[in-house]
């Protein structure tokens, strides 16, 4: 089991109470040297993977590529039945689930162009294909949503979500989706991130309390999830159902980091929560229980994303990032101790998709995929393992034009003319190609 990191209550995001449980806030360096890439040391549900890289992307994309800006309809169909419990054993990571086994729906063919979105977590991946949700990779807490706790090296369809899925959000060991205007979540739930009034994990989707219609975006991270409903941002954790973030209305996009959140309002970006390394972007390092304006981004923002302690946005087709900056995570061309104001990612224009993950970030610019930051497992996709890149490098092998990219925990996936392609760390099958072998260049999941 990975050691449990210091915990700051998620009420920082949901109720704006700065509460510390078991220690003061600190930066990533407190991770204690845990090996992110030790496939045998995943959390078994009792603790979150360590912060030094095992942190999910908080990818948010605009409506054009199936992301959280999409308008959704309403559906009166009953949600799937909640999972009966979490005592099912975790099977060896070498186990593979065939999507055709056990009466599951047949596998899809992403090469046919049916995939419209892909999203990465720390060790699992999901995609939207013809309105259905499919997931693969690590599954100890049911984050694949297929009524199982067995890892899968190939995609399996999420139970009950065969249609109507318009957005996905992945955390370390949990997954959420917008389904015909409803918010549904599954997987790890010790922090109440599933929002169903329980702390029990679930291997099938459960309904977030009260969010049965009108949801247009969703985001999830460590012990906290949020959604946009009618322009309001509502967040949940612990036993609490969703509660409105005061001071925000008319939100069009949303992102959640470890202990901070951001939203686009009127083309500007506002953030709230922990600000230890400048992740709120307002020029200070002062935590804020109410949304503050990100300095210099008052208009023109079309997407916002968040990682552990960093945030990024697309502004007038350029990429800007702020907060934590180890390994050149912010993409400014030099490594700093962080920035409490946005800095422009160097060398990119015509940016249409943006994602920041564990210790690397990626963007789609002019139809090509570019990545920067840590490259310890080849997550930058340039065919070689490097220590880091302080500026964007073009990914080799993505079938262009690419429309979407998602940076996860030491691996990356993209959606382009060749369907879904993934590269980097693969100890849990998160690349979806039927193996547990890392890949320095893009591979296509076996559907």
Task: Walk me through the structure.
With 447 residues, the protein is an all-beta fold. Helices cover 1% and strands 37% of the residues. It is built from one helix and 30 strands. It has one helix at 11-14; strands at residues 7-8, 20-21, 115-120, 124-129, 132-137, 152-157, 165-170, 174-179, 182-187, 202-207, 215-221, 224-229, 232-236, 243-244, 251-256, 260-265, 268-273, 288-293, 301-306, 310-315, 318-323, 339-344, 351-356, 360-365, 368-374, 388-394, 404-407, 411-416, 419-424, 439-443. The strands form eight sheets. It has a four-stranded antiparallel beta sheet with strand order 3-4-5-6, with no helix packed on it. Strand 28 (411-416) and strand 29 (419-424) form a beta hairpin. Residues 1-113 have low confidence and may be disordered.
What's the topology here?
Elements: E1 7-8, H1 11-14, E2 20-21, E3 115-120, E4 124-129, E5 132-137, E6 152-157, E7 165-170, E8 174-179, E9 182-187, E10 202-207, E11 215-221, E12 224-229, E13 232-236, E14 243-244, E15 251-256, E16 260-265, E17 268-273, E18 288-293, E19 301-306, E20 310-315, E21 318-323, E22 339-344, E23 351-356, E24 360-365, E25 368-374, E26 388-394, E27 404-407, E28 411-416, E29 419-424, E30 439-443
Antiparallel strand pairs: 1-2, 3-4, 4-5, 5-6, 7-8, 8-9, 9-10, 11-12, 12-13, 13-14, 15-16, 16-17, 17-18, 19-20, 20-21, 21-22, 23-24, 24-25, 25-26, 27-28, 28-29, 29-30
């Amino acid at each position: 089991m990975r050691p449990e990191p210091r915990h700051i209550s998620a009420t920082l995001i949901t109720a704006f109470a700065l509460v510390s449980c078991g220690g003061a806030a600190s930066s990533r360096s407190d991770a204690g040297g845990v090996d992110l890439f030790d496939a045998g040391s995943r959390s078994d549900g009792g603790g979150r993977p360590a912060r030094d890289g095992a942190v999910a992307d908080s990818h948010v994309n605009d409506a054009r590529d199936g992301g959280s800006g999409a308008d959704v309809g309403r559906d009166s169909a009953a949600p799937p039945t909640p999972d009966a419990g979490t005592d099912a054993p975790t099977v060896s990571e070498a186990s593979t689930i065939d999507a055709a086994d056990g009466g599951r729906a047949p596998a899809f063919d992403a090469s046919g162009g049916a995939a419209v979105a892909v999203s990465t977590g720390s060790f699992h991946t999901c995609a939207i294909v013809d309105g259905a949700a499919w997931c693969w990779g690590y599954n100890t807490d049911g984050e694949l949503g297929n009524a199982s706790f067995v890892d899968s090296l190939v995609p399996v369809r999420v139970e009950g979500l065969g249609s109507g899925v318009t957005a996905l959000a992945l955390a370390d060991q949990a997954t959420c989706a917008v389904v015909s205007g409803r918010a549904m979540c599954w997987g790890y739930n010790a922090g109440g991130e599933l929002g169903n009034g329980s702390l029990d994990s679930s291997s099938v989707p459960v309904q977030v309390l009260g969010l049965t219609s009108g949801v247009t975006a969703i985001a999830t991270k460590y012990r906290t999830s949020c959604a946009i409903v009618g322009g309001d941002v509502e967040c949940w954790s612990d036993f609490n159902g969703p509660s409105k973030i005061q001071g925000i209305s008319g939100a069009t996009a949303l992102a959640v980091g470890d202990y901070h959140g951001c939203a686009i309002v009127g083309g500007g970006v506002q953030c709230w929560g922990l600000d230890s390394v400048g992740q709120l972007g307002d020029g200070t390092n002062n935590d804020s229980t109410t949304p503050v304006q990100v300095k210099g981004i008052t208009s023109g923002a079309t997407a916002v994303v968040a990682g552990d302690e960093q945030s990024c946005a697309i502004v007038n087709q350029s990429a800007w990032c702020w907060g934590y900056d180890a390994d050149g995570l912010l993409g400014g061309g030099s490594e700093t101790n962080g920035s409490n104001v946005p800095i422009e990612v160097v060398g990119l224009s015509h940016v249409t998709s943006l994602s920041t993950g564990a210790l690397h970030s990626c963007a789609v610019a002019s139809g090509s995929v570019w990545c920067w930051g840590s490259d310890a497992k080849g997550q930058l996709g340039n065919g070689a393992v490097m220590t880091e890149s302080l500026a964007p490098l073009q990914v080799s092998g993505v079938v262009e034009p690419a429309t979407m990219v998602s940076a996860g925990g030491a691996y990356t996936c993209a959606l382009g003319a060749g369907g879904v392609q993934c590269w980097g760390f693969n100890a849990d099958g998160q690349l979806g190609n039927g193996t547990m072998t890392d890949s320095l260049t893009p591979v296509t999941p076996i559907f």
